[in-house]
Structures are given as C-alpha cells and as structure tokens.
Design brief:
Helix content is about 75%, strand content about 0%. The protein is mainly alpha-helical. It has one domain. The chain is globular, with a radius of gyration of 18 Å. About 0% of the residues have low confidence.
C-alpha cells in the first residue's frame, strides 16, 4: 500500500525533524558564538565528568523507564509543560555551572524522558510494553552524534540499525532477569551505545552554559533548546514507528529515503 495523504505529510515531517541541524547549531543561533569558541570554553577536565554523569543518568533512566514509565499518560502530549520544567532545571545548572551537572542532568533528562514517552503514546505506542519504553531511550541516541560517526553512519536509519542488536539484547535480558544485574553485558552495552551519542550533546550543552555571562537565564534557554531538540527527535522517531506498524518497515524506509533525497536536491 503506498503512503499517501496525511501519512505521507507526517513522514515528510519526520524526515525534517530527524535530519535537522544539530543541537550545537541551535545554540549558535541563540548565543552567536562559533562552534570552536563554545567547545573551547569547556574545561579540559570536564570530558570525563560529563561522560560519567551521562552514564550514571542513563542507568537511572533505565530503571525509571522499566518500572514506572507506563503510569499517568493520557490526552495530548504536553510538550510545553515539560519545556517549562526543563527550563527551570536549566536555570539551576546555568547558575552553578559544571559542578551542578551531576544534580541537574538527571533532573532535566528525566523530564525529557517523560516528554518523549508522552509523544510516543500520542503516536500510538503502548508504553506498557518494554519495547516501546526502550524505544523512548533510543531517542537520546537519535538526537546525538558520536565521535566515531562518518557521513554514512549519521542518518536516522543507520543509527537505528547500529542500535538494534543492543536494544534487542537488553530487552531480552530485562524480560527474563529484570534489572537485578544492571552491570550485565547486554545492559552495559545498551547504556554505553546510548551514552556515546547522548554524551556529545550533553558536552555541547555544558560548553554553552560555561560561556561567560550565560548564567541562570542562559542556562534556562539552553535547556529549552535541549528539550526541544529531543522532543523533535522523539516526534520524528515515533511517527516513523507508527507508519512502520501500518505499512511495513521496508516501505517506510524506502519512502523516507526518497523524501530525504528529494529534500537534498
């Protein structure tokens, strides 16, 4: 069955959201500083702290996802509510800088995760299922980039393919053994693959917040961009998944790539 009408318009929107400019581009548009200056503003010792905070945060989010995320979702996706809450947490991070990362990052990403799940539900996902919940965590990788990426590995379907085995193995392990062994290889691989991409965006976020005079107000603005970035990735991701359930994965991927090719030419 061909993808036509509203479904095709939705797929076109998904392409726009998932192949959009990077998070750092959004920051540059707001604070008007070049990429090199933003990244140079991050202290040399910060890289390890960022990655450690990201790993710890994702482990907490995995527990939250599996145990509680099916509760309290109804009506339309309330993206504005989550943006406001994330902005408030960003104000705290902007006021206290890098030392606040270990506190602010779990708060802001938990808010974003709830927003992602809300968007997933609005696109027909059954958040009670483990597969849908792990698909929500995938969004943190889909909205980021890894240092190991090349041009052939940064597209939406390429990233999903790279994550597929880790997601599948983690789902099987959790389904049979739960989260009693959070350091088990399947779970560790899943968290590592997500964090390698999500960590790049967190580094960009912290670098922007470290720019002089950013402060609390700037921190709130950066966090609004942060949550908006992942809400866009979530909307695109779950539009694609909804269409895959209706038309099949091969049909959707073929039409997605066709739309992407047309947009680039």
């Amino acid at each position: 069955m061909p993808i036509q009408g509203k479904d095709r318009r939705d797929l076109r929107r998904a392409v726009e959201l998932l192949e959009n400019p990077s998070f750092i581009s959004r920051i540059i548009d707001v604070i008007g500083q070049p990429l090199e200056k933003i990244m140079d503003s991050l202290p040399a010792s910060a890289s390890g702290k960022v990655q450690g905070a990201v790993q710890a945060t994702l482990n907490k989010l995995l527990v939250l996802t599996v145990r509680t995320m099916g509760e309290g979702f109804q009506g339309r996706a309330s993206t504005l509510t989550h943006k406001i809450a994330s902005g408030l947490s960003g104000a705290i991070g902007g006021a206290f800088g890098l030392p606040a990362l270990a506190v602010e990052l779990p708060v802001s990403t938990s808010i974003i995760l709830r927003s992602i799940a809300d968007i997933a539900r609005s696109e027909g996902e059954d958040i009670a299922t483990l597969q849908a919940r792990l698909a929500c965590l995938e969004v943190f990788a889909l909205g980021g980039r890894s240092d190991a990426d090349d041009m052939a590995e940064t597209g939406y379907f390429a990233v999903r393919a790279a994550l597929a085995k880790a997601v599948s193995d983690a789902a099987k392990h959790i389904a049979t053994k739960g989260l009693t062994e959070k350091s088990a290889p399947p779970i560790a691989r899943f968290v590592t693959q997500i964090s390698s991409r999500f960590g790049a965006v967190v580094s960009e976020k912290m670098a922007a917040q470290a720019v002089p005079v950013i402060g609390a107000l700037g921190g709130a603005t950066i966090n609004l961009l942060f949550v908006d970035h992942f809400q866009d990735a979530a909307r695109g991701h779950f539009i694609v998944r909804r269409l895959e359930r209706e038309f099949g994965e091969e049909t959707v991927q073929r039409e997605y790539m066709k739309i992407l090719s047309q947009s680039r030419t």
